[in-house]
Design a protein that fits this description.
two-stranded antiparallel sheet; 2 strands; mainly alpha; 17 helices
């Protein structure tokens, strides 16, 4: 007998809403720092007058370093998280990560009001980015493992929440720019927003076990408990701490041989999910190689007030809206199927976006020509680029747990998170030479 992975009754969609908020919270750190690139660049790349000429005193290449120092700890700590789960409970990993992310965001908000030398500010900011993404990696890996225990629809909801995090950050930046307050006050309000979002995410996680116990019927609790038993950790799962007596009694009716099934080795799981692992790695390698390092430097061919809105709207808002749309539509459309060879083929075809986006109106440039100077061409490319990224990432992450036995679903989810981080890191590293080629 295998656990029934059909979606249980989710009264009032309470569990789905909680997982959507958790997905949103996992990518708030990366997206808020990435969308605030203009603020950091303007603060660091100061200028001075010399003999009537404006001279930039120092270029910190903030976008390049931010991308690299975001993804390296993500890769390292995602791998480390596969060992941490044996020593730290899920509550400590998820709850503790959210607390530290909140404190680091609070530090970033405070620094807006503090005058300091550029080198000091750059060093503190990069250190903050490193640690905030380290905790974010532990948080994301733990939540992917947790959602892997549940039916597939919750994975889609979780990924949809992640997709909306970027849109949330882009809208917050647009509101900050649109406001009439001074730049420092706008930046302060901008960075306080993810502090509030992180607190809401932490409260949602604390409420999750209680919401699950109220929303799911007792027979489905027995299903979840069986899956958890087969995937048991030293410290267990917080979701299943609130099972009622009837559900616990249902678990005791399982055959001993079923309850004692052992999990497959990592190698055996990889043999089953390697295609999906390749797909998620390749998608993010392509995406991070040009976004945001290349796309953030695309300039509008029009002047006026539109110029200051062009990057927040056409680069960040368009990307994140379409990425969210691509992730969300997988709950309705799942094509190609997971067994199809067309699926990895379409993933590889996305590499064409790299040269296409590099030949948009990226400034400054020294080597490549501009083939797509019009704003509309850049927007169309971004729509296709980001929509396909979100769609294929979500399908890859959703398909992988379906390719293994239910008892191995959590480990498959954790492994896929590692390959997701690997793709992000490879893309971030590739961004340096690609930007130099332009």
């Amino acid at each position: 007998m295998k656990p029934d992975k059909q979606a249980p009754t989710d009264r009032g969609y309470a569990v789905s809403i909680i997982f959507f908020i958790l997905g949103l919270g996992t990518l708030l750190p990366w997206n808020f720092f990435m969308t605030a690139t203009k603020y950091f660049v303007e603060r660091l790349n100061t200028t001075e007058w010399h003999n009537g000429t404006i001279i930039t005193t120092k270029d910190y290449y903030f976008t390049n370093w931010m991308t690299l120092l975001s993804q390296l700890p993500l890769l390292f700590f995602t791998l480390l998280n596969s060992f941490l789960y044996q020593w730290l409970s899920e509550k400590v990993r998820i709850g503790g990560s959210l607390v530290f992310i909140f404190l680091l965001f609070l530090l970033t908000a405070v620094l807006v009001t503090v005058d300091m030398e550029d080198d000091t500010f750059f060093s503190i900011t990069m250190t903050t980015i490193w640690f905030i993404n380290s905790f974010g990696a532990v948080l994301q890996g733990s939540l992917f493992g947790l959602v892997g225990l549940l039916p597939q629809k919750y994975s889609a909801v979780f990924m949809s929440g992640q997709g909306l995090a970027g849109t949330f950050a882009a809208v917050a930046m647009l509101l900050a720019i649109f406001s009439d307050v001074d730049p420092n006050s706008a930046a302060l309000g901008y960075f306080i927003t993810p502090c509030v979002g992180t607190v809401i995410t932490l409260l949602s996680y604390i409420l999750l076990p209680h919401i699950v116990s109220l929303a799911l019927s007792a027979d489905h609790w027995a299903t979840l408990m069986e899956i958890d038993r087969l995937n048991s950790h030293t410290n267990g799962s917080a979701i299943l701490d609130h099972a009622d007596a009837e559900s616990k009694q249902a678990l005791h009716t399982l055959k001993p041989t079923e309850a004692q099934d052992t999990k497959s080795s990592v190698l055996n799981i990889l043999k089953k999910i390697w295609v999906m692992a390749f797909c998620v790695t390749f998608v993010f390698t392509v995406t991070l190689s040009v976004f945001p390092v290349v796309t953030v430097d695309v300039q509008s061919e029009f002047g006026g007030s539109w110029k200051k809105y062009f990057t927040p709207v056409c680069c960040f808002l368009v990307f994140n809206l379409m990425d969210w749309f691509g992730r969300t539509i997988t709950s309705v459309v799942q094509w190609p199927p997971k067994e199809s060879r067309l699926f990895p083929g379409l993933v590889v075809v996305r590499v064409i976006f790299i040269p296409l986006l590099m030949m948009c109106n990226v400034q400054n440039r020294a080597y490549l020509p501009v083939l797509f100077s019009h704003d509309a061409a850049f927007v169309i490319l971004m729509i296709l680029f980001s929509g396909s990224s979100g769609y294929f990432v979500c399908l890859s992450m959703s398909y992988a747990p379906q390719l293994v036995e239910p008892r191995d679903a959590e480990r498959a989810g954790a492994l896929m998170t590692f390959f997701l981080a690997l793709g992000l890191s490879l893309g971030a590293a590739l961004a340096f030479p690609l930007r130099a080629l332009i």
